[in-house]
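Proteins fold reproducibly. Next comes an illustrative record:
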Amino acid sequence: MTLAHRPLLTQARAPLTTQIRVMDEQGEWRDQALACERPLTLYLNKREIVTLMTLGENPEALVLGYLRNQNLVERLEDVIAVQVDWDVSAAVVVTTHTPDDIDETLSKRTVTTGCGQGTVFGNQMARLEQITLSPWPIKQSQIYHLLDVLNQHNETYKNAGAVHGCGVCSIEGDVLAFCEDIGRHNAVDTLAGHLWLNAIDASDKLFYTTGRLTSEMVIKTAQMGMSVLLSRSGATEMGLEIAQQLGILMLARAKGRHFLVFSGQDRLLLDDKPTAQARSEKKGKRDD
């Protein structure tokens, strides 16, 4: 994909963690990193849209990804500027025009199950009919390699906990982009904005998240054009139904050499099955 236009962007950054003193179970005091959480109110052409509770890792990409995933901005060429100011906790997006149906879109508000209370606008389900994904295959050994590589990320989580991580990965095992945030919906929106800003074709990429696979997460993955979804957590019934509808290969509860394939089983080549001893050891840990 060719990058034809890039809007004027601030580079507003804020600390991701802060240090506090805590007491442990022995009554000993020690330093502990704490994940930051800050409000960011999004304005589109001077109109207040939503307030996002975010870590603030890449706020410009976050607001762009949010607007795109909500279909409030369809073309990057229409975005003139994105200005984030942490002093007033505001993100101002200026575009060439405001959608004609914005009042109707904003009136259809759904508070999602996302950590930190995600919000989606409009009829998201109706938009699924416009999405066509590429159903490419993947090997079990490639999934294991990706999980090993992804263990090197999640820096804020390792430091302070309390955040979710999401990543866009190649089938070769490269993590092309990774983001952590208070809510997984913010992390996926940030990655959507990153892909959009850099004109990255994600049709042959895999999406990873530490969070559960709800309908919101499956829809946003599909909107980015990805048909393989990998999670360290579980899935919801509606999330599964949408994945099946769109032909998404959904793998969940993926840790170590264990995973569950919820949909798209025919696209996974089982070329690296764990040994009987490994399965027995895994069962022993669950029983404990």
Remarks:
- The two ends are 51 Å apart (CA to CA).
- Residues 138-287 form a domain with the Cytidine Deaminase; domain 2 fold (CATH 3.40.140.10).
